[in-house]
Specification:
This protein is α+β, with helices and mostly antiparallel strands. Helices cover 22% and strands 29% of the residues. The protein has a nine-stranded antiparallel β-sheet with strand order 4-5-6-7-13-11-10-9-12. A four-stranded mixed β-sheet has the order 3-2-1-8.
């Protein structure tokens, strides 16, 4: 009985902690919304971001496509990638064009956050209409019927979907599928357009 009570208490503490983190995010501490994550906004310069995220480290880097970005490191954790104009590169006057969020303490007003089971996101954004793996970096994105036009949900690199042999598109997800990161920008009409040819292209396993 003592062991059962201990397990219940531990579970309650985890729930309270998660709820507190979500409440902090939704109150604005790290709220994800159109064009912004917390105090960081699309259109800010790198210099302005430095002033905004005092105590964090900004590390110049690039993604697998060679696109320039700034990694935001806080308390040793890689929390965000801030993409800048590819033609300008990472400079103090470079403007942020896209934000990728890894930090599970950041959430939308609907409570969607990195680390959340994909099925939970479906309760907020409706039916899952497609999972698709990109050709170059094998990034795997989920599209829902009510997904906001400023948000993209990345779920992994080809492991979250149940794909027909040789294809890169599906409407079925694995039970273990979860949100790996959230991409935030200005609203875009259809960031992941229907493309049967892309879905039928061979998936590159890494």
């Amino acid at each position: 009985m003592n062991m059962l009570t201990s397990d219940i208490s531990r579970a309650c503490l985890i729930c309270v902690s998660a709820a507190a983190g979500l409440a902090a995010a939704q109150s604005g501490a790290c709220l994800i919304q159109s064009e912004s994550v917390g105090a960081i906004r699309v259109g800010m310069t790198v210099a302005q971001v430095r002033q905004t995220v005092r105590g964090a480290t900004l590390r110049p880097s690039q993604d697998g496509d060679g696109l320039p970005l700034m990694q935001v490191i806080r308390d040793g954790l890689h929390t965000m990638d801030l993409y800048v104009d590819a033609e300008v590169g990472v400079k103090e006057h470079s403007k942020i064009e896209l934000i990728r969020v890894f930090d599970g303490a950041c959430a939308t007003r609907d409570g969607v956050h990195p680390g959340m089971p994909l099925s939970e996101a479906g309760r907020r954004y409706g039916r899952l209409t497609r999972l698709q793996v990109t050709e170059i970096e094998s990034r795997e994105f989920a599209k829902f019927e009510k997904l906001p036009p400023w948000l993209e949900i990345q779920v992994g690199n080809g492991q979250a979907g149940i794909y027909p042999p040789g294809e890169r598109g599906t409407t079925s997800s694995a039970p273990s599928a979860h949100i790996a990161s959230l991409w935030v920008s200005r609203p875009v009409a259809d960031r992941l357009p229907e493309n049967e040819q892309a879905c039928n292209a061979p998936q590159q396993r890494r």
